[in-house]
User: What shape does this take?
Amino acid sequence: MGGFDLHTHTMFSDGTTTPEQNVRAALELGLDGLGVTDHDTTEPFERARSAADGTDLEVVLGTEFSAEHEGFSVHVLGFWIDPGFALLADELDRLRDERHDRAQRIVERFRSLDVPVRFERVLELAGNAPIGRPHIAQAVVETGAASSTGEVFDRYLADGGPAYVAKHAVSPVRAVELLVAACGVAVLAHPGLYGARDGEQGIDDELVEAMTGAGLAGIEADHPDHTEAHRTRYRDLARGLGIAVTAGSDYHGDAKTNRLGSATTPREVVEQLRGWLRA
Ligand code: AMP
Ligand code: FE
Ligand code: FE
Ligand code: ZN
Assistant: This one.
């Protein structure tokens, strides 16, 4: 198969598989590389690195970093970041606390909507991972208030929904600056999915231009949840800005239907991104 799946999750955030399972699955598919990009954490790095050690698979260690723009989240992938860089590590710690408090607020929203979900159960489902909406959605399904996590998102939890609470996070431009300062390469994740998730809405060109001014190296135009219109629009935008077009599956194990390796970035593009580090 070849290529790099540059966007995957593990149980260190809201995925359901271990880093070892993802590495094994990537090897079985014959991928050249695997991006390890859990939300707001660098915790899976050691395990992913050890699992790939001595194999032909190259792991690209990174994070899917949460930023905020006008009350909605914007996700920026940061590849090859230095987990010891204090300014970034501090913001990741702060985001973990913020996710904990926000989860409590979301649980209160559900309870006021007569969904008897318990915060303790959400904590159990998240384990040591920063708490994400998928953990809460799972706990809501267990109460019987909905039959699937997808239904929970559609009825309550999607951006702007009745149980949605925004995370306080840095701006997308600041996110790029922090990731670049941490020796990373910043790529905008799934630009078509911001705003109304099922509409044709996506992130504004002006915001992407401002992020590019701060050092953005690429746009994930190729994402399984993008329409053809999203793909064309953001591929053209990346070309116009002179930055890379990347692909990733956004694999979450059983938490989403996206299959590992279903979107891959060619090696030349990964080398172009790596070149950004030296530029
Ligand atoms: P959070 O980081 O807590 O805001 O949660 C974001 C995560 O929730 C994303 O990475 C997806 O895994 C999931 N998610 C967000 N919106 C939806 C949606 N409409 N349907 C299903 N999953 C979603
Ligand atoms: Fe996620
Ligand atoms: Fe995301
Ligand atoms: Zn993701």
